[in-house]
Amino acid sequence: MIYLDNSSTTQPDNAVLESFIAANLEYYANPASLHRMGRETDVLLRRAKEQMLQLVNNREGEVVITSGGTESNNLALIGFAMAYRSRGNHVITTKIEHPSVLLACKHLETLGFEVDYLSVDEQGIISIEELDEKLRKDTILVSIMHVNNELGSIQPLAACAELIHKKSRAVFHSDCVQSIGKLPVNMQHLGVDAITVSAHKLNGLKNTGALFLKKGIKPQAIMHGGGQENGLRSGTVSVPNAVALAKALRLSVVEKERADYRTWRNRVLETCTKYENIQVLCPKNSAPHIVSLAFRGIKGEVAVNYFQENGLIVSTSSACSSKNGQAGHVIEAIGLHNRFKNGVVRISFGNTTTDEHIEQLVSVIERFIDVIEKGM
Ligand SMILES: Cc1ncc(COP(=O)(O)O)c(C=O)c1O
What we know:
Elements: E1 2-3, H1 14-26, H2 36-55, E2 62-66, H3 69-83, E3 90-94, H4 99-110, E4 114-118, H5 128-134, E5 139-143, H6 157-167, E6 171-175, H7 187-190, E7 194-198, E8 209-213, H8 239-252, H9 259-272, E9 278-281, E10 290-295, H10 300-309, E11 312-313, E12 315-316, H11 329-333, H12 338-341, E13 344-348, H13 355-373
Parallel strand pairs: 1-11, 3-4, 3-5, 5-6, 6-7
Antiparallel strand pairs: 2-8, 7-8, 9-10, 10-13, 12-13
Helix pairs in contact: 1-8, 2-8, 3-4, 9-13
Bound molecules: pyridoxal-5'-phosphate.
Pyridoxal-5'-phosphate (PLP) binds at residues 68-70, 73, 98, 100, 145, 149, 175, 177-178, 198, 200, 209.
């Protein structure tokens, strides 16, 4: 089977697994313990964190180890809103965020916060003008994802940051789960105050993530207990998981966009633009590792099954919204035509992808179109 569902999750890298096992065998003591083994484990944790901070160009800042992207997003959204509520109660996000941001925002609404959801164009991109209109004196938090997990659309974070910091005192958070490792994620260049990452999208381990914070930016904790992670995330820190995350980041972080992914993406685009029965979602300004295709008059799961029978693992728009077979909130937000909107398939490349896989993919797409044209 050829695995082309890397935006759902990736195969852990051997080097990551090795560092996880090595750390577990030797550094299993609690890093909060005062004895020598505890202190040595704490030194390892600090080293892993320094490395991670350097990789995102946030040396002066802090990184909180979490159980993944979902927890990091919840800590950012709920934690910042609670921490800064004396300044105001207005939050801005977008209509196409991952549910871990959107539902955290819905929760904030129940607590009395006012949330504005920015719309996106047909390319899945927000408008700076709308952000400008929505920013207010009492805006305390703006959360805009870097790369959308269903479309691959890339948001103009640096331009957003400039505007947000000029017009307000809001904290600017970005969910970078789908961008880091594929596009440069440099916190200084992007102008963001906090970013979310998740290890399992980077050939790391599931249930590990991080929230990177610029110096002086602190959310209120949402997990209460022993006060670990400078009081920001209670619970014994798994140093092996942190070490494995640092390793996965070190192996994946890029200074330039990955050219091989872009070449593969273009190859698929060239193939698909020949056919009327396929619409490529967000062909412009999209991350190189995600290609979402909409098949006219076909259900996404039918396409996914056809691809699977032909040796390829792909997904419907996102693993989270794929179970109910309905067009998800992202597909609705870009206003995809009714004839296409239930037939979205997401193909996502990763470290295990090769040129041969892409040739096989192209040939299966061509055969599938043939089948559709003949009326299945
Ligand atoms: C953009 C985005 N944010 C957050 C998450 C959640 O990450 P995790 O699975 O580590 O909780 C995902 C996972 O699909 C994602 O794609």
